[in-house]
Amino acid sequence: MMEKDTVIVLDDADNVIGSESKRGSHEFIAKQPRGVLHRAFSVFIFDQSTGELLLQKRASTKITFPNVWTNTCCSHPLHGMSPNEVDRPQDVKDGSVMGVKNAAVRKLEHELGIPKEEVPVEGFKFLTRLHYWAADTVTHGPESPWGEHEIDYVLFFTVESKDQLTIKPHPDEVDDVCWVTKQKLLAMFDDKSLLFSPWFRIIAHRWMLSKDGWWDDLAATMTTHRHCDYATIHEFDPPTEHMGGQGAATALFSPIIPTQNAVAKQGAYGKIKTHTESKLSQLARLDEVCSAATLLYIKPLKSNLHHAHIKSTFNKDDLAFCDEILCKVSRSFAAVIRQLPPTLLVDVLIFYLVLRALDTIEDDMTAFPDNKTKIDHLLSFHKTALMDPTWSMDGVGEGHEKLLLQQFPKCHSVYAALSQQSRRVIADISHRMATGMAEFVGKDLGQGTLDITQYNRYCHFVAGLVGEGLSRLFAVSGLESPSMAKELHLSDQMGLFLQKTNIIRDYLEDYVDGRAFWPQSVWNKYSTSGDLGYFANQSDPLAQTKSLHCLNELVTDALSLVPDCLAYLAKLRCTEVFRFCAIPQVMAIATLDKCFNNPNVFTGVVKIRKGLSCQLILHTNDAQGVHAAFRHFANSIASKINPNDPNADATLKACDAILEITAEQHSRATKQKRTGLLMGTAAAAAAVAATSSRSSSKNLIPSLALSATAFIGSFWVTHTFQRLVVKGSSSGSLYSPVLRPAAKLMTECQNGDGALEQAQ
């Protein structure tokens, strides 16, 4: 059969381009390191009454992947069969794929002895396709001449009861069968004595084992199009143990690492490799370790969530849910929200959750039968979700985002208790953001946005409007000047800076998810294949060079927003609001530094070290700390500029602009350090002199007292001098705000400042 059967040879787009013997297509040799790409199918049969899945153990006599547990049946449609087993592009587009279904019926009878009448073709549900490869190195060793390289069609089939199936396995095909629950399969995966086919592991971890995945949602999987994706061919490299073979094959695609616990977020989040530094490397940075310990145990961000004003205003249980779900959907953002003043904290918390709910609807690519339905939900969100206290949505999103929509009445309860001004801001921004999202729903973003204009427009809708909404909430609270509500440009630029940083970092996640945002007018200058996925092939030296040039152009574009971001921060006057805005900004510049000229962006997700994050949070208290961070990372980026990069001059210019803006605060900090050093030296000299002049033992105590007095007096002089320097030079600069705690600002308002009354 290896010589006789003729498989369907394909190109990467699943177009039929020829035929090959089963043997020839599965040979992993020097001239074809991954064999020949061909079409395959994987059948999954479920017992509806118990939710069990039928597995088979491939026979020990099979040439490829013997002795492994796998899904119910996996094989190939063939040329020259009757009924026909060759599907056309139109068959895939409409989901009919009668060719692979006919092949599935044929092979179920051949391998498992299931009669054709028990598995009629109309009972199969086609879900999606995956392009994967794997060398059979586990069976045949590192020089294995065999492997699989397929575009695999996933087919589901259900029976009311397993008793309805006649199963008589062919001994040359199958050694064993068993029915398993989801929990049983997870236990089998944990059993290191069992082997599993790589394609089965990919499908199971990517789509089936997640909460609310295909298996949990089996009825909807079989009766709706919720989980169907006919347009995408999902690409997967194998686990490392299945790389190699006689052709020494390495990664073909980007390294997607399916894991059983990567299910809490939507899209490709958690399914892409995360590049992290080793624990030893992180522990070696003692300053960051100390910062982490300080932030966790000594000086954590103070939470104002239990303030009397909040307790007396909002429903305790509903607010507790909102706080808990905020931590689930964005743990890092939750910390900076909680430190906001009590009169602003809940407003921002609900603003974030409302927009996260809206974003969940936009991001779900399978829950709605068509784009029109999704658009209708988006455009009516500000009326339904924000006006109907009973509104909720089920079956949309994954994990915690899905729970947020299911339990949205609890969010509405807290929202309804906000001031009328805050509700007006949140409703207005939600409506305008939804309108922008609706504009992009029907666009094909598989290859990114069209150009910089569309790129900026998308970022405006999903992030710039957030900046505007926050500025308006700051003004309404009375903690910031009423003029902040009119800072539309700077608010927008601040949001764009954060969003562009995320888009740059998330290249691979977004590309795998089929919704990318890198502008085509930029990346087309560097991709020789005309495809955004070209950059993921980091084994090609030319692709690696081109990818870095493209990456650096986008980083440079983001850096051009920094002057406006710093100008925005300079307009703030409340310490807590300043920190809330500044912490994400310094995290963004640190992330851009991490991404710049870094090929890891194209093979996974790069993140800054946790210790560095803690250090930045601790030091982001005023303009001096923020400017120091921006200056440090601008210098770091400038030091990594490759003179052969076509963007080198533009990047250097952007870094120089940041260095010029931060020069004043840098000079001030340098003077303070120099003054402190001089004062310390003077104190030490005074102490030594005092001790020397009173060296006898009977004068030891007075001598030590004099030394201590000298040190204390020196410290007081130094501290007073530094305060005068800061006070005397912190006004009158475009980028240097004078900050005051919220409590002091509110007292000033009550004593006649009038800002609160004006804002309201």
From TrEMBL:
InterPro entries: IsopentenylPP_isomerase_typ1, Isoprenoid_synthase_dom_sf, NUDIX_hydrolase-like_dom_sf, NUDIX_hydrolase_dom, Squ/phyt_synthse, Squal_synth-like, Squalene/phytoene_synthase_CS, Trans_IPPS_euk-type. GO terms for molecular function: isopentenyl-diphosphate delta-isomerase activity; squalene synthase [NAD(P)H] activity. Coiled coil: none annotated. Residues 36-202 form the Nudix hydrolase domain. Its cofactor is Mg(2+). Pathway: Isoprenoid biosynthesis; dimethylallyl diphosphate biosynthesis; dimethylallyl diphosphate from isopentenyl diphosphate: step 1/1. Keywords: Isomerase, Isoprene biosynthesis, Transferase. GO terms for biological process: dimethylallyl diphosphate biosynthetic process; farnesyl diphosphate metabolic process; isoprenoid biosynthetic process. It holds the Pfam family NUDIX. GO terms for cellular component: endoplasmic reticulum membrane. PROSITE patterns: NUDIX, SQUALEN_PHYTOEN_SYN_1, SQUALEN_PHYTOEN_SYN_2. Belongs to the IPP isomerase type 1 family. Belongs to the phytoene/squalene synthase family. This is Nudix hydrolase domain-containing protein. It comes from Ditylum brightwellii. The lineage of its organism: Eukaryota, Sar, Stramenopiles, Ochrophyta, Bacillariophyta.
